[in-house]
Design brief:
- The termini are far apart.
- Strand 14, helix 8 and strand 15 form a beta-alpha-beta unit.
- Helix 1 runs antiparallel to helix 2 and helix 5 crosses helix 10.
- The chain has 2 domains: about 230 residues, Zn peptidases (Aminopeptidase, 3-Layer(aba) Sandwich); about 90 residues, Beta Barrel (Elongation Factor Tu (Ef-tu), domain 3).
- The chain has an 8-stranded mixed β-sheet, with helices on both faces. The chain has a 6-stranded antiparallel barrel with strand order 4-5-8-7-6-9.
- With about 350 residues, the protein is α+β, with helices and mostly antiparallel strands.
């Protein structure tokens, strides 16, 4: 499969937190030709190169996305739902959705009263999520129940676009882009002589509490753990660079720095990027990050942890945007970093 087709396949599949299996299968099918694959009871998919090596590095990209879960069906067949992960309620009305059911995909729309029928005070209010519903065209509750079940999940039904200047637009780039990068790093290393064991994890349930990274890191017990996620691009209107930093699409992956990050590892990754002349950006995060790196760092007795992020516009919307060259440069930095490890490195801050 072509690498862009691989990214597209990952993104268009429906897989909110707890329901990632079909996305994980796509990821595993791509990786299984060059790495050994295992899965765990939580749903994490783990690929490994050179498993006999004593020192282990774990790469984690979460494969779940935000979405909706059906919680109630009224007598007229309309489906009421709750959010899975951080949903912007302003963006929900008017969306097309696909509902993942035991019978296959069911299409629906999230309706809203026409503007012509709204009272003046309604125009300035954000709809409450418990007042929103999905219309699947059912005539009544019984017909709806013949199509969907309580607990089925839905995600936006949108296209995957490649637009100008290597930009990719899709739902679920947070963090299928990171899961893509993990797979491509393994692929880049498959024919190289590496001296450490490399565990690539397509982790689950990040959007509801960094859960898959916690369980997979405990099982792998890595010496080094690096999360690959997305971060807020600040190169579009409405974002305050003074609060987040200057982060731009196309200017390279973002190497995080802060208390969640081992400073020795930060310098080592940055040094590789400088030596190989691979563009990168630096982000200061003065707290625990909201990424898999947070869970990895405090697993067992502690893990030497890093975070490499892909600049992303419009996070948690159906039109997330990345620059494809940033993904490929993330692959390059981490593949070169891993290839340069000899397994004797001391990652203690005070050796």
């Amino acid at each position: 499969m072509d690498k862009l087709d691989f990214l597209k396949a990952l993104c268009i599949e429906a897989g909110p937190s707890g329901y990632e299996a079909d996305v994980s299968r796509i990821w595993a099918d791509y990786v299984k030709s060059f790495a050994s694959i295992t899965t765990d009871v939580h749903g994490n998919t783990i690929a490994v190169l050179n498993p006999a090596a004593e020192r282990k590095i774990m790469l984690s990209g979460h494969i779940d996305e935000i979405g909706f879960m059906i919680r109630y069906i009224d007598k007229d067949g309309f489906l009421y739902f709750g959010p899975i992960g951080g949903i912007d309620t302003n963006l929900i009305p008017g969306q097309r959705v696909k509902i993942k059911t035991g019978r296959g995909i069911v299409k629906g729309v999230i309706g809203k009263k026409p503007i012509h029928l709204m009272e003046r005070e309604e125009l300035s209010k954000c709809a409450k999520i418990d007042s929103l519903y999905i219309d699947i065209g059912a005539r009544n509750k019984d017909e709806a129940l013949s199509m969907v079940s309580i607990g089925d999940v839905a995600v936006p039904y949108v296209e995957f676009w490649q637009i100008e200047n290597n930009r990719i637009v899709s739902k679920a780039l947070d963090d299928r882009a990171g899961a893509y990068v993990v797979a491509r790093i393994l692929e880049s290393l498959k024919d190289r002589e590496i001296k450490v064991a490399v565990y690539g994890v397509a982790s689950v349930q990040e959007e509801i509490g960094l859960r898959g990274a916690r369980t997979s890191a405990y099982g792998i017990d890595p010496d080094i753990g690096i999360a690959i996620d997305v971060t807020f691009a600040t190169d579009h209107p409405g974002v305050d660079e003074k609060k987040i930093g200057e982060i731009k699409l196309g200017k390279g992956p973002v190497i995080a720095r802060g208390p969640n990050i081992n400073p020795v590892l930060f310098e080592a990754v940055k040094r590789v990027a400088d030596e190989k002349q691979i563009p990168y950006q630096v982000e200061g995060i003065p707290r625990a990050t909201g990424t898999d790196a947070n869970s990895i760092q405090i697993t067992r007795s502690g893990v030497c942890t890093g975070l490499i992020s892909i600049p992303l516009r419009y996070m948690h919307t159906p039109v997330e945007m990345v620059d494809f060259t940033d993904l490929e440069n993330t692959v390059r930095i981490l593949a070169e970093f891993i290839a340069g490890l000899d397994g004797s490195e001391d990652w203690r801050v005070f050796p």
